[in-house]
Design a protein that fits this description.
119 residues, single chain, two-stranded antiparallel sheet, 10 strands, mainly beta
């Protein structure tokens, strides 16, 4: 058994073309897990990821701030305490509102493939 305190995990810059800005940080919570990927992603104000999909379900647990989750047909405001389950292959994006930073823990399978669907 191992206990991880997310407040003690190092925040690292997360530079990736999937994001609309550079104010993004990641905390890798379970680097040794073979069953799950669990990371915290921190978005600066107004930063989001671009439309994308995952080959497997993705779970988001909102830990701070105000954000948005959107598909091609709907958009929802999300905030601390909300939990989102995104079905496999659903085209979506998520990120911070223009007035708030935003953080979430994401959980997925390590072999899940992300496909960026927006330039």
């Amino acid at each position: 058994m191992r206990v991880v305190n997310r407040h003690k995990v190092e925040k690292l810059p997360f530079t990736n073309p999937i994001f609309t800005g550079t104010d993004v940080f990641i905390q890798v919570l379970l680097p040794d897990s073979r069953e799950f990927t669990a990371n915290v992603v921190h978005f600066g104000k107004g930063v989001r990821n671009k439309f994308h999909s995952h080959s497997d379900e993705q779970i988001l647990i909102i830990t701070s701030g105000k954000g948005i989750i959107a598909t091609e047909t709907e958009q929802k405001d999300i905030t601390e305490g909300d939990i989102v389950i995104i079905p496999a292959n659903e085209k979506h994006w998520h990120g911070a509102t223009k007035d708030s930073e935003f953080s979430h823990i994401y959980i997925s399978k390590p072999e899940s493939k992300l496909t960026q669907l927006e330039d």
